[in-house]
Amino acid sequence: MSSILEINDLHFHYGEIHALKGVNLTVNSNEIVTLIGGNGAGKTTMLRSITGLLGKISSGEVRFMGERIDGKKPHKIAELGLAQCLEGRHIFSNLTVRENLNMGSYLRKDSGITSDLDYVFHLFPRLLEREKQRAGTLSGGEQQMLAVGRALMQKPKLIMMDEPSLGLAPLIIRDIFSIIKQINKDGIPVLLVEQNSNAALQVADRGYVLETGEVVLADTAENLRSNDAVRASYLGAS
Ligand SMILES: Nc1ncnc2c1ncn2[C@@H]1O[C@H](COP(=O)(O)OP(=O)(O)OP(=O)(O)O)[C@@H](O)[C@H]1O
Ligand SMILES: [Mg+2]
């Protein structure tokens, strides 16, 4: 199995705050890997330091398809095929659904854009129905679908998602997770950050548990689901 993303001994500081303390994490081709942990554990910091959004990391290395990407600018990293759906979604409220999707593919020069748009509309028929609607007026769940759709329009080689289920109703959450599974079946590896650990460990192959900037557990999703400490702290089991 070849690794798509490999993170070695990653440290990150916000000024005095040591937010990531030597994290190691790997995503192999065809895997769904989940990163779980409580509020402030460093999950968003992980994703943002991988995509270059936080500037220079303190130390360590990030490799994407074998190539060092730490120190590269976010748009260069996106061009290599690393897409992310950010926490809080960050869609363009004043643009239509269709225009938002076009923003996802604007860096591409290949001829597959139309068929990828068909693919996104096939995954999310709701977005096709609302193609001309301003994104800011979509419901929360629809905005999340749009954020995932826009990331797919980058034709990513890896997609990273930051809490895609945040604030959504149970039925929509189920849809989002089954779509994540589908995207992965269609050949795209996924790094999934979630506080909804139950659902995340249902779809993932492997998982990492992050606590105050450190990986305290790394195992198959199945083993994590039956781990007593994980069950007590993250799965709501007594
Ligand atoms: N811009 C910033 N400046 C200073 N400290 C920050 C900044 N952003 C995050 N932090 C701190 O870094 C730590 C990790 O934050 P991060 O957002 O990565 O956590 P998280 O695991 O994503 O949490 P949540 O589940 O609540 O989203 C927290 O203690 C947070 O207060
Ligand atoms: Mg976060």
Write the layout of secondary structure elements.
Blueprint: E1 3-14, E2 17-28, E3 32-36, H1 43-50, E4 59-64, E5 67-68, H2 74-79, E6 82-85, H3 97-104, H4 113-123, H5 125-129, H6 140-152, E7 158-162, H7 170-185, E8 190-194, H8 197-203, E9 206-211, E10 214-220, H9 221-226, H10 228-234
Parallel strand pairs: 3-8, 3-9, 6-7, 7-8
Antiparallel strand pairs: 1-2, 1-4, 4-5, 9-10
The chain binds adenosine-5'-triphosphate (ATP) and magnesium ion.
List keywords for this structure.
Rossmann fold; alpha/beta; 238 residues; P-loop_NTPase; four-stranded antiparallel sheet; transport; binds magnesium ion; six-stranded mixed sheet; nucleotide-binding; branched-chain amino acid transmembrane transporter activity; 37% helix; binds adenosine-5'-triphosphate; ABC_branched_ATPase_LivF/BraG; 10 strands
